[in-house]
Design goal:
Layout: E1 2-7, E2 10-13, E3 18-26, E4 33-39, E5 46-51, E6 58-60, E7 68-73, E8 78-83, E9 92-99, E10 113-114, E11 118-123
Parallel strand pairs: 2-11
Antiparallel strand pairs: 1-3, 3-8, 4-5, 4-9, 5-6, 7-8, 9-10, 9-11
Length: 124
């Protein structure tokens, strides 16, 4: 099993930046595909980004391509998401997730482990 704890959320003005972190504990971090999802008020949770075990492969939602960057440091058991050029529509609770398969999935049902989430609010 793996336990996930997100941090780095907060309030930022449109056009600003935030970096989210997700610290993992438990089984070998490098054996997990890691993903970020978000859920805005009144909406379903949606995929944001995911990264392969080595960090060599990534996938992004179209809505964040070119603005968000996912990365990982296996030595620190941490995955990051750098969010630039933030927009009010990025406002959501952001969740870190993990699964032990081989494919960089974009569907939340593929992920076995979830953090508690961190709030990101972008003001206009």
């Amino acid at each position: 099993q793996v336990q996930l704890v997100e941090s780095g959320g907060g309030l930022v003005q449109a056009g600003g930046s935030l970096r989210l972190s997700c610290a993992a504990s438990g089984r070998a971090f490098s054996s997990y595909i890691m993903g970020w999802f978000r859920q805005a008020p009144g909406k379903e949770r949606e995929f944001v980004a995911a990264i392969s075990r080595s960090g060599g492969g990534t996938s992004y939602a179209d809505s964040v391509k070119g603005r968000f960057t996912i990365s990982r440091d296996n030595a620190k058991n941490t995955v990051y998401m750098q969010m630039n050029s933030l927009k009010p529509e990025d406002t959501a609770v952001y969740y870190c997730a993990a699964h032990s398969g081989l494919v960089v999935h974009t569907t939340e049902t593929a992920y076995n482990y979830w953090g508690q989430g961190t709030q990101v609010t972008v003001s206009s």
